[in-house]
Amino acid sequence: MFNELSSDQARQYIDATAVFTAHEQAAKEALAYRGAMFWRRMKGKDYLIRTTPNGAQKSLGPKTDANEHLADDFTRQKQACEMRVQSLAQALAQHQRLNRALRVGRCPPVLIHTLQAIAQAQLAEHFVVVGTHALYAYETAAGVIIASDAMATRDIDLLLDTRKQLKFMTQMKRLDSSFLNVLRKADKSFQLRPDQLYTAVNDTGFEVDVSMSDEEDDFWAVQTDMGGKLLGARPFEQIVVATSGAMARLRTVHPQDFCRIKRLLAALPNRERGKHRKDELQAQVVESLVAQHLPHLR
Questions:
Q1: Which of 44, 70, 147, 154 is deepest in the core (most CB within 10 A)?
Q2: 167/175 Cα distance (integer angstroms)
C-alpha cells in the first residue's frame, strides 16, 4: 500500500524544503518594504513620501534627522531583502530541478501552481484543502507514496474559512480582482462552469471546487455538508512537491480528523455509492498511514 522514498529522495526533500521555507520567510519579510520612499519639494520644504505598490502616496512629514534615518534604513533594508529573495529564488530553482531529476514529488503541477497563486495573492490562510488532495500532504509527511486508487481525482476541493471572511474580503478588495483571476495566475484557461458556479475548470479538465463570495463573475457560495466540522478540525500543513519539481505549502486538516470526517461522510444515507466507497477507502488508507509511519500523530 505504501512505497517508501529512497534515501536520496528523502535527503533531497529535506534540503529542498529548507530552502523553500527560507525563501518563503524572506518573501514575507520583503512585503514590509514594498513600494518606495522619496523626497518631494513642497512650499520650500522637503517632505518624505511613501508609495505603495498600487501607486498610493502618503507624506511622512518634513525632512528631519529622524525621517532621513527612516528613509536610509528603508532603502538599505529593501535592497537587502530583495537580494536575499533573489538569491534564495535561484537556490530554489536548482532544488526544483533536483526534485524532478530524483522524482521526489508526484503532485500534479496544476495543484502546485494553484496553491502558489493563492499564496502569492496572500490568501493562503483563508483556505483549507479538503478531499483527496489532502493525501499528498499526509504521504509527504510520512516519506512514502500511497499506491492506491484512493489518490485518483481530477479536482481540488478548497474550503473558505468563513471565520476570516471579513479579512478575506478586505484582501480581495486590495487585490482589486476576483478569485477566478487569482486562479488564472496558475492557469489562464480556468473558466467557471455555467452549470456549477462554484467550480472552475481548465482546458485539461482539472477542476477547482470552492466556497466563495457571490461577486459577479466569481464563484457562488456553497455550503458543504461537513463544512463546519472541517473548519473545526485541527490544522495540518506540509510542503508538497509536483512531478515537475515545483513546491508549495498545502494546508489541510489533521489526518485523524480527516479519517473521522470521511467516515461520517460515508455514513450519510444520501451519499452517492461511488463517493461512499472512496470515503471508506481513504479513511482506511490514512489510518494505516498514521499507524505505520506517523504514530506521533495518533
A1: 70
A2: 12
